[in-house]
Amino acid sequence: MIIAIDPGHGGSDPGAVGPAGTVEKEHTLAIALYARELLEKSGHQVILTRDTDQDVAFPEATASAELRTRVDIANQAYADIFISIHINAAASAEAHGTETWYYLGGQAFAAFVQTALSKLGLADRGVKQANFYVLKHTVMPAILVEIGFISNPQEEQLLATEEFRLNAAQTIVDGIWSWQNATWQ
């Protein structure tokens, strides 16, 4: 399989910032790099929209240019699936848990990954539908995972550990394998 992984934000866009000052773009990249390593070990080809802390389209790119470029990378690589990795944030420090988003046709893929994310031990916020640009404009099954809340001090602390990042990557990979085994037979 060709798997496109999109570490959310990056470069001039830090994404959400937690109460301890950690930034979303660092967590998403670390998780994506671990996921790439795990998937490549099992023989899959992995395309990352970014593999360093950089803007994807061009330096100081607009949000729309960034999103368009991320989709173009996946579509031009003829990826079989697309996973955008994000960390959630909310006004309340009490918000917590994981959730997986899909657009049309991605519900089963999202459900398998969300089930796997439950191994992280965080609250299961479920599978949800949205017309996020990166989901709507990719031509392959696509999901966006929200791995915890950076605005929650306990989850922010977890996200900053290499062990949790590796576990998060492994759960995403487990979800991909479960979905692949169920649908590609």
Any key phrases for this structure?
Aminopeptidase; 6 helices; 6 strands; 185 residues; 20% strand; single chain; alpha/beta
Explain what this protein looks like in three dimensions.
- By secondary structure, the chain is α/β, with parallel strands linked by helices.
- The chain has a single domain (2-183), classed as Zn-dependent exopeptidases (Aminopeptidase, 3-Layer(aba) Sandwich).
- Helices cover 41% and strands 20% of the residues.
- Strand 4, helix 3 and strand 5 (124-129) form a beta-alpha-beta unit.
- The model has no long low-confidence stretch (mean pLDDT 96).
Helix-strand blueprint:
Layout: E1 2-7, H1 24-41, E2 45-48, H2 63-76, E3 81-88, E4 98-102, H3 107-117, E5 124-129, H4 133-136, E6 142-149, H5 153-159, H6 162-183
Parallel strand pairs: 1-2, 1-3, 3-6, 4-5
Antiparallel strand pairs: 4-6
Report the CATH C-level class. Alpha Beta
The CATH homologous superfamily corresponds to Zn-dependent exopeptidases
Return the string of H and E elements. EHEHEEHEHEHH
Shape: globular
The DSSP helix count reads 6
Radius of gyration from CA coordinates: 15 Å
Into how many domains do the coordinates divide?
A: 1
Strand order, largest beta sheet: 2-1-3-6-4-5
Sheet having the most strands:
6 strands, mixed
Tell me the fraction of residues in β-strands, as a range: 15-25%
Q: What's the count of strands?
A: 6
**Could you tell me the mean pLDDT?**
96
